[in-house]
């Protein structure tokens, strides 16, 4: 059971969760658009991206207003700074989903070998799973998920290497190979965003820096 800290804002948390849901749905839709070259899905996702951008702006404004207040409860500033880190990560993840969906018009998967297509699908499914877990961690205020996603990210990195090896061995036209390389990078980067979000979520609960500076000692 999560502990609800008094310095947290229910409205901010709710908007963050809405962004998590919108981006997660966009990513799943982008995967389907890409794998099936379905540009009708892409059109719908472009409209959804506008909603993500609007909600991002609203959330930024609310957090900025709270940061400018004179009196803050203990822990509140750490929470607000954490949210400031989270919302751009969410917005950039939405952009990634849109970038992936836009590749549907290129029909990149038409001539892919089954193994290469299968690895691409595995990457997308793992990225979607990591995103869901990051969202649930924020909702439940669960700091333990970050370490688990670190492990899953290593698996995603391995899949990315395998995907690029398959692309190279199949010797597609250079233009197609470059587009597939971008898609692979987008899928891998989406998982990175999920990891970063889980780390920052953990810091909201533990009050520790999610990215501690390395020691300068030899």
TrEMBL record:
Listed InterPro entries: PhoU (IPR028366), PhoU-like_sf (IPR038078), PhoU_dom (IPR026022)
Domain named PhoU: residues: 17-103, 121-200
SUPFAM superfamilies referenced in this protein's UniProt entry, alphabetically: PhoU-like
GO biological process entries: intracellular phosphate ion homeostasis; negative regulation of phosphate metabolic process
Protein name: PhoU domain-containing protein
């Amino acid at each position: 059971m999560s502990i609800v800290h008094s310095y947290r804002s229910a409205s901010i948390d709710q908007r963050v969760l809405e962004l998590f849901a919108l981006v997660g749905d966009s990513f799943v839709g982008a995967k389907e658009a890409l794998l099936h070259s379905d540009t009708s899905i892409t059109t719908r996702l472009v409209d959804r991206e506008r909603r993500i951008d609007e909600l991002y702006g609203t959330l930024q404004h609310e957090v900025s207003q709270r940061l400018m207040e004179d009196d803050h409860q203990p822990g509140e500033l750490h929470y607000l700074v954490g949210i400031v880190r989270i919302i751009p990560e969410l917005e950039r993840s939405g952009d990634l989903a849109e970038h992936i969906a836009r590749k549907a018009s290129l029909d990149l998967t038409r001539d892919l070998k089954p193994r290469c297509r299968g690895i691409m699908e595995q990457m997308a499914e793992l990225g979607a799973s990591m995103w869901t877990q990051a969202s649930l961690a924020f909702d439940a205020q669960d700091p333990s998920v970050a370490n688990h996603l670190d492990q899953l990210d290593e698996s995603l990195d391995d899949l990315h290497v395998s995907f690029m090896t398959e692309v190279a061995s199949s010797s597609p036209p250079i233009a197609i190979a470059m587009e597939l390389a971008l898609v692979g990078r987008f899928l891998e980067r989406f998982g990175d965003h999920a990891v970063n979000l889980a780390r920052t979520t953990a810091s909201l609960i533990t009050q520790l820096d999610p990215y501690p500076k390395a020691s300068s000692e030899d």
